[in-house]
Amino acid sequence: MSNWEAIFQKWDSFEGLDKDLKTELHTIKDNKHALEDAFYKELTFGTGGMRGVLGAGVNRMNIYTVRKAVNGLANYLLANQVNVRDRGVVIAYDSRNMSKEFAVESAKVLGSYGIKTHIFESLRPTPLLSFAVRYLRTVAGIMITASHNPPEYNGFKVYNETGAQIVPEEANLIIESIQKTKDELTVPFLEKEELEEKGLLNWLGYEIDNAYLERLYHMTKMSEDVHQKEKNLQIVFTPLHGTAYNLVTKGLEQLNFPKVAIVKEQAEPDAMFSTVASPNPEEHQAFSLAIELGKETDADILLGTDPDADRLGVAVKNSAGEYQVLTGNQLGALLLDYILSHTNPQVYQNPRMIKTVVSTELGRAIAESYDVKTLDTLTGFKFIGEKINQFDATGETFIFGFEESYGYLISSFARDKDAVQAAMMATEMAYYWKEQGKTLFEALDVLFERHGYFLEGMSSLTLKGKEGSEQIANIMDAIRSNPLKEIAGIKVEQVENYLTSERMLMAEARKETIDLPQENMMKFILEQNAWVCLRPSGTEPKIKCYYGVCGKDKEDSEAKLTSLKETMDQIISDILEGNE
C-alpha cells in the first residue's frame, strides 16, 4: 500500500469524519486518479497562507486541513508573541463556498488554546480585515478567501499584528509549527457554543466598517468645497459577486458622488460567480456587463473589484469612444500622479513611493518629478506592507504603493492592497480630469508626453507536473549561469540575480548587494530605459517573463516590446531544446 493510500484509509475509517466529506470520498472511491490527487501530498502552506480546491483529502481545502493550519498558527503565536490569548485574532471571510464555516473552524481551534477570536457576522473585504487587525490591536488576522481564483477554490491567508500579510521569515516558522501537527483529523477544538459561553468568540458588527469609512472620508485629495458638493460624474460599479458592495457604495456616497449605477446581476454575493468566466478585474471579460451598463448610462468610469476586494480594475472610454480596461501599470501611474499633484511632499518627512520590481518604471519617473524617492520590492504586496512597517523606525513617509497586478494602497490605515481605497481615489481622479476636459486615457497621454511612452507586457509558459518543474528550474539555471549580455539588440547594463542578492554592473564588471529577500528571479536592466524580468510563478506551473520599454511614441514602444518578447521566447525555446 502506497503512502497516499494509507492516508486515504485513515480518513475513510475515521468514525467522526464530516458527513459531506465522507459522502465525497465514497463518490470517488473507485476513481484511483481522483483519489490519488486528493491524498498524494498535503496542501501547501506558502508565503502568505494556503489556497486549493475544496473537497476531501489532505491536498484539498476542508475543515481538517484548515484546522491543522490554525493549530500550527496558534502554537506559533503562543511561542513568538506576547499576551496572545487576550489580544486574540480577528477573522474575516468572503463570498466563497465554505468561507464562513472555515472562519468558525479557525475560531474553534484557537479557542481550544484559550485564544479569543473576533469574527465578522457577515462577509467582508480583505482590506477591512487588514484594518481590523490594527483597529482591534489583535496579535494576528485570518482571511478566508481565494481572491479571484475559480469557484471551486478557497483559501486561508494570515496577517501579522501590523495588518500586513506575513513575510517569508514568519511563514517559515508557521510552516514548521504546522508540520509538527501529525494528524489533521484529531486537532483539538471547542464547539462554537462553548466559545461563546466562555467569551472566547466575539461577533463583529459594523463598528469596524464605520471606523474604516471615516478614515476613507479623510483620505480624499479634494479641497473641502469640492468635497462637499455633488459631483457630475456617472459611475458604474460591479463587485463581481464579492464583498465590496457596501464599502464602495457608502464610500462614494460620503464623497458626494450620487450618480452610481450598480451592475445588478453581479451585486449579490455568489460563490459560483455565475455571470463571469473568471471573477478577475484584470480580464476584460469580467467587465462585459459593466460595459453594457456603461453604454446605457454614458458612464465616465467603470469600477470592478475582485471577490475579496483587494484588486481594482477600471475601464474608461478610449480615443475611439469604446470602453477599455486600463492596465494595472497605467492605473497605478495615473493614481500616483494625481496623488502627488494634489499633495505637498515637503509636508512629509522623506516621502516614499513603493512598487514591485516588475511594475512600470513610469512610476519612478513620475515620483522623481515630484522629488519623491521610489523603493522597489519583490513581487507580492506583503513586501510593500513590510516596507511601510519599517518607516516608523527609518523616518520615511508612505505616499503610495502599487503592483502591476491591479493592487494599490493609498493610505496606510490598511497594510494590504485595497480596492476600496483605490476605487475612491480613481473616482475623484476621473472627476478631476473630467473638469479639465479629459478622460483618463487622455490624462495618460499627458504623462507619456511628460515622461516618455512607457509600455509593459508579460508572457508566460505553462509547464505542468514534475517534468515541467524541472524544465522551469533548467531555464532559470541556464540564464543564471550564463547571463544575457544583450536582448533584441539592446545592451544589458545591469543583471539583478535575486536568488543570490547580487547586482552586476556590466560596464564596470562590479557587483553590488541587493537589499531584498532572496527569490528565484532574474532581472536585466537594458539601455534605452528597457528591462526584462524572468520569474517562476509561486502559485501556478508557469514561468513568467515581464517586459518594460520606453519609446518616443506608441508605435516605437510597441515595436520594442514585441522584439523583446520574441527574443525571450526564442531564448527559452532554445534552452528547452538543449540549444542554449
From TrEMBL:
Residue ranges constituting the Alpha-D-phosphohexomutase C-terminal domain according to the UniProt record: 513-555
Pathway terms, separated by semicolons: Lipid metabolism; Glycolipid metabolism; diglucosyl-diacylglycerol biosynthesis
Cofactors: Mg(2+)
Catalysis: reaction(s): alpha-D-glucose 1-phosphate = alpha-D-glucose 6-phosphate
Xref: SUPFAM superfamilies: Phosphoglucomutase, C-terminal domain, Phosphoglucomutase, first 3 domains
Domain of life: Bacteria
GO biological process: glucose metabolic process; purine ribonucleoside salvage
Alpha-D-phosphohexomutase alpha/beta/alpha domain location: 44-182, 211-315, 328-448
Listed name of the protein: Phosphoglucomutase
